[in-house]
Amino acid sequence: MSEHPARARDAGLACGDLPTGALNGITDVPGVRVGHRTLIARNIRTGVTAVIPHAGNLYRKKPVAAVHVLNGFGKSAGLVQVEELGTIETPILLTNTLSVGTCCTALVRHAVEHNPDIGRRTATANPLVFECNDGYLNDIQALAVTEADARAAIDSASPQFDVGSAGAGCGMSTFGFKGGIGTSSRRIDLDGGNYHLGVLVLSNFGRPGDLRLPDGRLIAGPESPADRKDTEKGSIIVIAATDIPLSDRQLKRVIRRSGVGLARLGSFWGHGSGDIALGFTTGTILSHDATAALVGCRILNENRIDQLFEAMADATQEAVLDALVAAGSMEGRDGHHRPAMLDSLYPIGPVTS
């Protein structure tokens, strides 16, 4: 493949007018880190991606969180408790569909290691794992992901991380092209302070021929007529982070706007698609060990929430384009191939400045 830009903005695919953070990624939110474990061998094209909300003990200091399901054709774990209690208490792992159980076990072991009272003197832990089906490029039946791989993703977490075909994104496809991990952020100024909303996506959705760029161009790609008539069978996981103090109800309102960004790209959340958004804020932390009957917290004045709605829509849209730009092309299981989106966008040669 020709040398192409590494990020969506390098390819001129910016979304919206709001300013980005310095990294234009989810880790612009202070304390958030991301790690990968990528598995490539013979017919294996898979992996694990970990999102760590803060550097402390997540079980003891729980970020307020919310989940929103656009279409629920998926096998993720831990969503029910997030919906009920409005917090998260483990790292967030992304992987392939048949590796959810393995990653859950790894998260439980990680939580117990740091909190020996779990399940004995206090409550059990709620492992949070999201999945997409990478079976076109990856031999998903091989069950290649191990607990050690999940732990390696957690241990490698850093503010700087790869996008594209890294970690859980290794075997993913988007609109008939190679997909994967993408990220973007927006800076939001409130009462003289700088805050951020960042998005990370595991992009594995979209019917070939439906991709629409920010300037309105449709990118048909190399699909066959049969592909174009196919049903939407993919999935996307959207993880949003912010340091703006929010309630779980406000977070749910914000992450719903991920659907705006996906619709702009050409998605309609088909019957067979698992499209799920999770958001958390490091600006509102609840203590597992609090003893007071009443606890206080700050939340955003709801009259200012439109800025977050706009940021969520724009950052989600750009994060998917980020994954498409960075992923390149890939040959996987049994010779299956996904081309690079930019090879269709710039079919003659590399982009030059």
From TrEMBL:
Species whose genome carries this gene: Microvirga arsenatis
Official protein name in the record: S58 family peptidase
Pfam families linked: Peptidase_S58
Superkingdom of origin organism: Bacteria
Family listed: Belongs to the peptidase S58 family.
